[in-house]
# Entry
Amino acid sequence: MNETTRYLQSVYHEQSVDVVALVNYLLIDAVKANASDLHIEPWESTIVVRVRLAGVLQELVHLPLDLMDKISGRLKVMANLISYQTDLPQEGHVAASPEFGNVELRISVFPTVRGEKIVIRIFDPKNRSFDLAQLGFEEETLSAFVRLLSRPNGLLLLTGPTGSGKTTAIYAALTHVVSRSGPTMSLSTVEDPVEFHLPMISQAQINPAKEFTYPRALRSLMRQDPQVIMIGEIRDPETAAIAVQAGLTGHLVISTIHAGSTTGVFARLINMDIEPFLLASAISGVLGLRLIRTVCPLCAQPYQPEPALLKLLPADGLEHATLRHGTGCSECVETGYAGRTALTELLMVDEVLREAVLQKLPTRALQQVAAQQGMRSLWQNGLRRVLQGQTTLEEIMRVLAADAF
# Structure
């Protein structure tokens, strides 16, 4: 039983609920469960409180609807928001406090027809490792990625959906550069927002309200003599153009971009009016990322997937496979999974791929060229994790359903 439920059972009726204590217990439960997010949302007849554990939402508790305004008001006070404003979105920040296990909170309030929906992003420094070797990259991916980071110039891009580990990977990459080069390198970042403060790195947070945008920050940063530049996200043509130009003029530029696949990055940037010949010269590599849940070691048992799914596994690999799944226990909250690890697809841009980009080949054709050059896809690496017993075929299908065929 969680702390919130214990507290609710200890009060006689709804009017006796101390909203300050209730909100504290909700946050404590979320932190104890190692949740990445806490969702508080008014439904038809109750307030549902859910936590995101290893990328999947799970219900924590249901509360009476009458408490919604009080809960919203309390969280707004904590985040220094306008408490009486209920018809516009608001965002705020709560600094780390021993009361909640020294985690930082980013609070987003969004008006809906049933009332305000609140989502709290939880940043727990204890659960963030910025060690590249600890992220779970495949061995060949890790060694190739480290080689890319040792280059003096070029554009290194990370792609994947929201919550796929891009920020953690990019911070780990910067930490690796710092640990390798120490004070001999000048590293600067432009982010929205700065999620963690990194040692020996100059970090800036954009502020569109004051016209401190990505393009303006980057133009100014180029006069700061940086050797490594991290851009939080390439989201507009102007930022893309500056990033490509910086990669071509002696800077190592690391950034993220939303694209359907690693090879789809080229089409995305071409749609931003970047010339293919510039992309072919500037981009040194693209890392595709996903996060997959790993089997709980305490309740792991051998298992046989459904016949339809089993056909997806390579026949030659099944002979020596170790297929496992978790049956569910108290340690994994009956999910069968404990923790997550990175699943990667690293596209190394070589002369063959550059020529294909210059010819403006479509994304699918670029994917085939990359595969011929030795790139292992997310799907191939996912199946390899299944055969090794690290995760389940069902989990790979959940995360990579669109990439399966």
